[in-house]
Amino acid sequence: WQRRSGGTLAGTPPDEARPKSTWSMVNGYDSHAAVWDWDGYDRTPEYDYWCSYARRYGDKVLIPMCALAEAGAYLARQGFRVTAFDISAEMVYEGRKRFDSVQNLSLHVADIRDFRLDERDFDFAFLATQDLHLLSDIEAVKQAFASLAVHLRRGGCLALELVLPPSESYEYPKRVYHPRVPNYSDKSVWKEGEGRYDAATKRHHIIQTVYVRDRQGTSSFPYNIVLQYYERESILDALSEAGFAVAGEYGSRAREPLTPQHGEWVIEAVRR
């Protein structure tokens, strides 16, 4: 199948809290932490979607690659017991500053490819949007699935949102991105970016500059991303190898049946 078209905190997190391995697919992610929520657009419908999904399996939720853990905080406020983690100590630090008062939310610094939590009985885990595509190759994906499987109970669910690789290369020109709803009173944040997709390597390159204007003036930093897309069979094989059985494949969050024409791909996998 191919897509046819184009607690109380102080100071900075210690270095020893950082995972020994890092992604090579993102540049500027740590710098982005302080303004990660620059777009104040209301994402309640998305978070409600994950709440509804999780309720079918239980109330103990694991969220890898969580960034600031905005989704995790929302689910925790709805009564779920949430553990979330991210590879960036800066992201986790900023997330704790924002959500330290939220009950039933635990944030950690960890690498999805090799993490060890004391709890191994989570009911539900999810990777939203294109997060899994930040892993550079299928071996990294297999490591991630294996680590997640260890922490889910038998019958627990891993939900994935992926993109099927387009069959043709494309590129899009540089443009400016302003927040749909400004989120800060003390500064303005916007982005300038361009991108291209290489069908031969199945890699989507996103090249951005993030601008921050405050009382001291305007500063900027690069934020470059490479998303690795995978063929359907490779992901299904990796899930099976890690001990998951696919319970459903969908072409959207509305759970419409997946077809070869779909670009979006939602997988519901249950730990055997």
Question: What does it look like?
Answer:
The protein has helices spanning 44-55, 70-77, 89-99, 138-151, 232-241; strands spanning 26-27, 60-63, 81-86, 105-109, 122-127, 152-163, 170-177, 188-198, 203-214, 217-228, 244-250, 264-271. Helices cover 20% and strands 34% of the residues. A seven-stranded mixed beta sheet has the order 4-3-2-5-6-12-11, sandwiched between helices. A five-stranded antiparallel beta sheet has the order 1-10-9-8-7, with no helix packed on it. 34% of the residues are buried.
What is the topology?
Elements: E1 26-27, H1 44-55, E2 60-63, H2 70-77, E3 81-86, H3 89-99, E4 105-109, E5 122-127, H4 138-151, E6 152-163, E7 170-177, E8 188-198, E9 203-214, E10 217-228, H5 232-241, E11 244-250, E12 264-271
Parallel strand pairs: 2-3, 2-5, 3-4, 5-6
Antiparallel strand pairs: 1-10, 6-12, 7-8, 8-9, 9-10, 11-12
